[in-house]
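Following up on my earlier message about magnesium ion. Here are the inputs again, as you asked, copied directly from the submission form:
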Amino acid sequence: MSSSFFDTMPRVISHRGACGHAPENTLASFKAAADLGAKSIEIDGMVTADNQVVICHDSSVNRCTNGQGAVLLKTLEEVRALDAGSKFDPKFEGEKIPTLQELIDALVEFNMSVNFEIKPTAGWQVETTLKIIEDLNKSLPDTVPLLFSSFNIEALEVAYKHAPEIERGYLTEAVPVDWERRLKAVGAASLHCHHSFATTELIKAVQDAGIRFLVYTVNNPEDGKRLLDWGVDAIITDYPDRMFEFV
Ligand code: G3P
Ligand code: MG
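Thanks, got it. Here's what our run produced:
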């Protein structure tokens, strides 16, 4: 079992690797985060047609690669043949959509913890979550702190049921009025909202309930400073280098 994510959680978590500096969710991005001094990264994961976990944000490869189509309709071999670097910058040509094992190797090499966002293709939430749990249980060393998060309630429910020992973050844009009930239903230890919906009152109420309050995606240093001053537990940012001076 992984150690508690929150025991070592820094107040700056680097988003999709460090996707302000390198193509999101690639090995180059994980390395960029480490090189910048990040101690924790957020990444997104889903499965392919042949049920292999890959690190990717969108359900299709269109935006980030030179290919077209749904990840869930491609085999791992087909996904791996794509260039996931050039669209960000030609100098990253040849970057690939990483496998789970490549992510794990990077986390170990760079000594970073991970907020693994379960990003299922709609309709594939159960299969996606079960496979991610199975592979992480098999391959993630105990020394790598892990936090699951998801916008998808079914993914959180499945994670709660099948891997209750892995902490869960409830992802949302705005904070629902009945956040406490919703978080309790999936045993969430943290609430992650879009930073524009954070208020000092909400932060206090959530923390008073014993829940960590995280905000994404904070790229403006003034916002970062204000939110950290307000006492959020962590900010998730594409540019960790802009935020370190405030923690
Ligand atoms: O986990 C924070 C953030 O990654 C959630 O939104 O769409 O960037 O995955 P998204
Ligand atoms: Mg994400």
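One observation from looking it over: Residues 221 and 243 are 6 Å apart (CA to CA). Hope that helps, and feel free to reply on this thread.
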